[in-house]
Amino acid sequence: EDEDDDDAAQPYVIDRMQFKRDYRGYLDRRREHIYVFTPGDEEPIQVTHGDYDDSDPVWSPDGKSIAFVSDRSDNPDLNYGSDVFIVDVDDENHPITQVTSNEGRDYSPAFSPDGRRIAYVTSTGPDVGGSALTPTKYLAITDIDADQREILTPDLDRNVSNPEFSANGRDIYFRLEDSGMNHLARVRARGGDVVREIDGDVSVRDFSMANGEIVVSLTTASTPAELYAFDDDLSQLTHITEATLDGIARAAVEKRRFESADGTPVEAFFVKPVGYEEGRSYPTILWLHGGPASQFNWGYNDTAQLFAANGYAVIMPNPRGSTGYGAEFAHGTVAAWGENDFDDVMAAIDHGIETGLVDPDRTGVGGWSYGGILTNYVITQTQRFKAAMSGASLGLVTSNYGHDQYQLMYELEFGLPWENPELWAELSPFNKVENITTPTLWMGGEVDWNVPINNSEQMYIAMKRLGQETQLVVYPNEHHGIRRPTFQRDRFGRWIAWFDQYLKPGAGPVAQSD
User: Fold this and answer.
1) How far apart are CA 123 and CA 136, in angstroms?
2) Cis (ω within 30 of 0) for the bond into 154?
3) Largest CA distance in the chain
4) Which end of the chain, C or N, has fewer beta carbons within 10 A?
5) What one-character-per-residue DSSP string does 301-352 give?
6) Over the stretch 175-184, which tens digit does the pLDDT of each residue have?
7) pLDDT at 27
8) What is the pTM of this model?
9) Is residue 86 within 8 Å of 69, Cβ to Cβ?
């Protein structure tokens, strides 16, 4: 008998559809519930129960109840929906009242100051995880005693988040995502026009309200997030990141608009290398964001600044599938990954060449998560790039069905793999791996169950078998995001070394190990 065996370990017994989550592992029937802890007590009190996950808890103004979010349908594993509930904490039986009822997602609740209404984020159709099918997120309000949803932003074809009532209850503040920007906006609780309180080329990462005061976490393209007090004007409260970056040159960033192959307007952020000289063309990295339901914005991007500090121009496009440009644009890649978005990112690099920033003979491409997936679609369709970095990406789609955490998303967007095998095969970069001639660095976390490492392993071994230049780097005990600081530094260093080797004349080979 192995003395190292853990006698306490038990087998996982699986009988549910959603049985895995990245960072959580095998789920069994473990659920997330709401607990209340009173200082001085020995143990917290559990106030929600059942075979459901509960989240987003917020206290009512009188401190007697908690609003929270849960999917309490017959089988929560078969949908991405959620509703708002209230649990009575004062009552020892902790009765629960359902406040909203929606086939999509209702979440991020906020009580009005009088405790009679709740503002929240809603969607008007079924949610589909983080895929391009994800519907627009609207701001809504309802009385706690009646499920009568009123959407306060019905004509705003943009996502909202983080609603908070003003101290007098007349206004609701929220974050508004729009065309590469994140603004602080407000609307009357009874309805009306949306007013942007903080706008322009900034990104409001978060905000908090108390006693009539507003504090925001705000970032720009050249400055990481700092805290500001807001009262008509911004007053900076912290200077933490300023001190960190004191004396460090930062790259200039500009947002440009151009047309894709079919005439669709597309935007991208163009980052000039530190020390940029007008009239010169530079080695350039086309850097692709994850999601796809996400966007690059005016916030500080440390990856782009790292590349720029090492002499690269960087292009960060928001192709179709991105949020912030309306539902039609976001849905432009549904069940068609690597088509419209491929055209859009290629239009971005072409624009950079046409305007003189990009050296066409020294271009690289890369990204993480869906950014890595789109990288795979790029390098299987064109040989224009001299190097690629594909992080936490997809290879053979069917090999992920039941292995990663997106089984339901795949079914809703692609259909069942045995009923629609042609689409599943067409969407798999692995099936076109023989087209790849671009030297490619594959990366991922050893225990990533978001986009498992087996994808990168399969893409790597196929390229290796075909005699192409490639390398695989796996980070031990890491999930979808690489968190350990030493590994983060290692990853950044490998990115620079890989692109240097192929985009900069005279660069040495990439080290095989430390």
Assistant:
1) 6
2) no
3) 73
4) N
5) -HHHHHHHHTT-EEEEEE-TT-SSS-HHHHGGGTT-TTSHHHHHHHHHHHHH
6) 999 999 999 9
7) 85
8) 0.93
9) no
Sign of the four-CA dihedral 447, 291, 251, 216: negative
Residues of the chain with CATH 2.120.10.30: 20-200
Which CATH code for domain 249-503? 3.40.50.1820
- In this structure, the strands spanning 226-231 and 213-219 are antiparallel
Q: How far apart are CA 249 and CA 308, in angstroms?
A: 10
Query: Does pLDDT of 173 surpass 50?
Result: yes
Model confidence band, residue 514 (pLDDT cutoffs 50, 70, 90): very low
Checking if the pLDDT of 76 tops 90, the result is no
Predicted confidence band at 42 (pLDDT cuts at 50, 70, 90)?
confident
Contact 317, 348 (CB under 8 A): yes
Provide the token pair at 192. Answer: 């009306």
Q: Are the C-beta atoms of residues 203 and 299 closer than 8 Å to each other? A: yes
Share of the chain above pLDDT 70, in %: 96
**Neighbour tally for 321: CB within 10 Å:** 28
Q: What share of the chain is helix, strand, coil (3-state, %, to 5)?
A: 20, 30, 50
CB atoms within 10 A of CB 114: 10
- Cα separation of 448 and 23, whole Å? 8
Q: What is the pLDDT of residue 370?
A: 96
Q: What is the pLDDT of residue 129?
A: 63
CATH 3.40.50.1820 region(s) of the chain? 249-503
The C-alpha atoms of residue 255 and residue 326 are separated, in whole angstroms, by: 18
Secondary structure element (H or E) that encloses residue 180, with its range: none
